[in-house]
Amino acid sequence: MLRRCASEYNGDLRAILKLPQKDAMKALKKFPSVGEPLAERILMMTHTYPVLSLDSNGLRVLQRLGFAAVLKDYSASYRAMREALASQLPVDFDVLIRAHLLLKRHGRELCKTTRPLCVQCPLEHDCPAAHRLV
Ligand code: SF4
Q: What does the alpha-carbon distance between residue 98 and residue 44 come to, in Å, rounded to a whole number?
């Protein structure tokens, strides 16, 4: 599979980054284990398209802060968050990458899946989910 994908681009995967965003996403998702979040992360980290890729930690943090609802499956939740944030994101790769990394760290260290450490969280007073998840 990987070899077939690579041969489509004559071994130079940078060709994918020259495609229109929708086509680049489609091409990246053909690789094993590459879903929507990882494909977007590649486009963001390579400064190709200014998207905010979220890992599961970042998505959880933003859901708890009320930016978008938790839906029945991960993909639907991810897309809902992307739509909710679309008009608020800057076209600045450094800001987007920093936001991605900070949200990931916040989710890992404080806003954990179970028993988030809300008493230590700087967002405690603005978070609708604060102290509701124990
Ligand atoms: S207050 Fe609690 S639930 Fe809200 S973002 Fe902080 S750690 Fe997460």
A: 11
Atom nearest to 132 CA in ligand 1: 3
- Of residues 86, 109, 87, the one with CA closest to residue 40: 86
CA of 106 to the centre of ligand 1 (A): 9
Q: Which two tokens stand for residue 34?
A: 């590459």
Average pLDDT over residues 16-43: 94
Residue 85 pLDDT more than 90?
yes
What pLDDT was estimated at residue 8? 79
Ligand 1 atom with the shortest distance to the CA of 122? 6
Q: Is the CB of 129 under 6 A from ligand 1?
A: yes
CB 101 within 8 A of CB 52: no
Instruction: Confirm or reject CATH 3.40.630.30 for domain 52-133, answering yes or no.
Output: no
pTM: 0.89
Token pair recorded at residue 63: 């859901």
